[in-house]
Amino acid sequence: MLNVEIGGIPIAVTNAEEAQALEVFASEEFKQDLMAMTSDGTPL
Fold it and tell me: pTM of whole model > 0.85?
């Protein structure tokens, strides 16, 4: 299982193979989605 963390807090988790997960997590679409997400009104 691979996850992406911000400040030590997991924000995305996947069971995909490492190469596939890294491709998704590095994609511009994923980055754009993260920029739009908030937690208690604070951008991730």
Answer: no
